[in-house]
Batch of 2 targets.
Target 1
Amino acid sequence: MYKKITLLSLMSLMTLSLASCGGNKTASYPNFPNTPGDKDSWEYLKDENGKIESRDLEWYVNDSSFSWNTYGNDRVSEIIKEKTGVNIKFVSPVTDDNQKLSTLISGNKLPDMISVQSWYSQCSQLANQGYLYSLDGLIERWAPSFKDKIQEDMWNYFKEGDGNTYGVPNFAYSTKYISDDEKLEPNGCLMVREDWYNEAKLAGYDMTTTKSFIEGCKYIKNKYEEAIPFQLDAFTGEGNDSIDWLAQYFCSAYEDKDGNYVDIRLTDRYKEMLGFLNECNKEEIIRPSNYSDKAAQIRTNISRGNCFVTAVTPQDYQAAFLNAYADNKTYVPLILKNKDNEAPILQDISGNGYLLTMITRNCKRPDKAIKLLEYLYSEEGQRLVAFGVEGESYTWNEDHTAINWTDRYISGVNGNKEDQAWINSLGLYNMTLVMNLAYINKLKPLNGRKDKDIYVDNMKRPLTPYSYNFKPTFLKHDTGDKSYFSVTTTANKIKTKWAEALIKIIRADDYETEYQNAINYAKRQGLEKVITFYKQSYTNTKKILGVTYGYPKNNPSYKEPTFVTSNGDFSYWRGATHE
């Protein structure tokens, strides 16, 4: 769900850009009539004849993967235009090197609306240097009904030092819809090919301990020539997602018993995890090619069903897992425990958001933009972009607690060509820029699903008992702190070097020496200053989120889940039973 960046290059580019041209923090608002608040703000766009003035707005999305190819020709975009009068022109970069965003800022050519990765420092800098309208100010003037829709915890999380909020995130899990105590599936996890795993278990390897895991992988490797025993995700300049997930399996705590931030790389559990990977390498269950594999190659390996165990983020390779499923090669989760036999503490899919959408001071009609944003942010708008139009593609149940796909929609899903073409014309799940998955996923219809839909929806759910809210780890830094830039530059330099060191550690004859070399480098670069700064950020983040215990095991109410099977608890499957 979250893309990674190279902060050093980005910050040097963007800080220069922000300093080289001026926003206007004290700029006034345009003199458009205020909007009353006794109904949804977009309802006031209609004139006495019931018509809405058309307006073009340009929206920059700082993500090369974003596209809405059917915009203007599908049902969702038609309704958005009918409700708000806005015709959106989307712009996105060709590559994710942030040059496009830098150019827009340095030339003071930011369009009407922008969506930028929520953790980028530029979100705060643009706000604090006057490039953005405060959403609070826009709402007060032209969208007072927006106040009733605000997700308070996320609103406060993105609040700046002046007390105003300048953007709303997509893919954020607000407590308005999902309680922090509510159990959700994990973000990333170990997945094992089920038929081969059953053979390994019959041979005596349940693979829940590191020793049994390695022996089980060796057993399958020796039995099947095409088998890739243990597939890690791609190694990049940012590190490796598989290592992040495995650190959680080994219970690498990011908080000490007193509630203070901890750099997990310094913990014994993290070191134990690296030692396990080093042993996997020595036993040749990690292939040498894995260290240079790109995502495309990993996708191919999974698609063919050649991977015995993967440690990737399953939703990033969903199509690949579905391809394997179509060839009767199903994958199920796997529980792996550390040397003290502790249950894993896995990060769930919730978070504080991916892209933050903001309205810039260059917008000539911010009154129109905030009404558009309110509509998209509203539950009505959310249902539209995910499920279409009530009565056409979905219907409510009697008490409006759940929705179902219509017969026509199900007909299209089941292969009726005419109805299938109609489904394609709806344009569902394209407008993701303000998407609230916490709301949408609770409503998502379960009728009419095919076996493959049920399978992919439930892949990770058996690990739900081992999955917890990690939202405090998305640190809210004080970007106005005088040491912020130097600290984040140092942190990124260490991270880049650590990413290089990971391969050396895993492949080393003496992994402890390589590990210590990496730690010593980090300390020489100023790791302690980074940790000190992050400790304060962590404390502030917990305060904003209303969290006392960040790491689940520190919570007095924590109880280790009962071990059901080595693949988790299949009673968590939704809408079907695992057989």
Target 2
Amino acid sequence: MFALRFLKKNKFDNYADYIENGQPIVPENFNFAYDVIDVIARETPDKPAILWTNDNGERKTFSFRDLSELSNAAANFLLSRGIKRGDAVLLFLRRRWEYWVLMMAMHKLGVIPIPSTNQLKAHDIEYRIKTADVKNIIAFDDGYIMDEIKKSIGDQNIQLISNVDVANALDHMPRTLDRVATNNHDTMVLYFTSGTTDMPKMVAHNFTYPLGHINTAVFWQRLTDGDLHFTLSESGWAKCSWGKMYGQWLAGATVFIYDFGGKFPAFDLLRVLSENRVTSFCAPPTVYKMLIREDTSKYDLSAIKKADIAGEALNPEVYERFLKLTGVKLHEGFGQTETCVMLFTNQWIEPKPGSMGMPAAGWDVQLLDERGRPVTDGEVGEICVNLASGKPVGLFEKYHKNDKQTAFSYRDGYYHTGDVAYRDADGYFWFVGRNDDLIKSSGYRISPFEVESVLLEHPAVREVAVTGTPDAVRGMAVKATIVLNKYFHGTDALVRQLQEHVKQRTAPYKYPRVIEFVDTLPMTISGKIKRALIRRLDSAKSTIEGAKTTVIDTTKNVISKAKGAK
């Protein structure tokens, strides 16, 4: 396992030992592409780095020697196109294998990649071009994204290169490359945030960032030599860096990549997992929800020994059903685009369904109240990282070209995540929501996730977003915006049934006094619920009268009013 070269110890006896000695050691002027990929290629050239396949049946395996040589060729191609150290390049490559080759090539040159999702529209791309001062774009030639990119470019002097141009050039470019000097604090990669509450920000990670993912892959995902790991993420998201390159290769695993267009049906995912004998899998909760609804008896999932979940908090029911289906315990992890994994359940921590677990080595995670004071166990506080001993490896350098936001997030000796949680008496952390999502009703602080988890246990509820909505008496009332499962209808009787369901399973003051049935929930392109949009729409509506509940019956396309439970 290559990661051991960057750790104080080769083996850890327990969680306390890991916390004390598990923080990565960072060499001077570290460059992942040269100091990991090229070294593995020299020492074990035939070791598989990537197993790539797609929905057309194509299949390719890349060894570390292949990855090293192809990234050199790609670097020479970029140089031939005038792209050099410090230049920012937008990448729209879906899950094409060229993405991984180009990322390593750009790291070698000190070029700054900006991975981007193929779901963006022209105005999204235009915003990114302007904000990041982009002069070069490399994209998957699939028609749609190319059309959107061309609309966004207009008459600007921007070089557009397709993945086909890259692939065709690799056979003709030299596969040797002189090392380009980079510094640990240079920007290695830029990611745009999801923009759930504001315009997307540019998160700048430096060249030490890959070593932070030793925690992600070795200790959270528990990967070892011989594992075939599959993280279900498009290349445009930071989750790709979490699960499809840095930490996995440091752990000795092979990265499995399945490239597909459109939405991924659950039965196809089960087929892919089964046929390719994937041993380790990581996906957001919504994917696991889809899987457990399918008839898994048709597929052999016995190769899966490790499964992880991140992106949003885990509903305990999903944990229990997946465990029953596969015998595998889901290990939850928490982090952001700005971080590596900072809270998780690992090999020394028994998962508590729904808990994020405990801090990763090097991450002094504390929960602070609104005055910046640590809260006691059971109290809700903002998830913050204490910087008294320095920034942990993997925490972002800055918000690119946004000093004001950087200063706001790095203040008073802490990095402030903007997320809130509580810690139980055993030291486990439990996600509550974004600071803005917390509902303050009649003096109570209510977690939207807790109410969502309870509602999802009801057979009528397919998807739900819980928010606070203006209330003349309580300040805010708990509102549930619900997408129903097939054969259920948004009736007054169902409203009362759902309200009683929540009252019976959690503190009565948390029940949703307002329930709205909709066909779909507003989502970001990364699949996160836009609770802020729901709140804004509610604020624009007239004040709720008393405890009345608005019910939208989508099956009849009418709006009716019903008395809520008192």
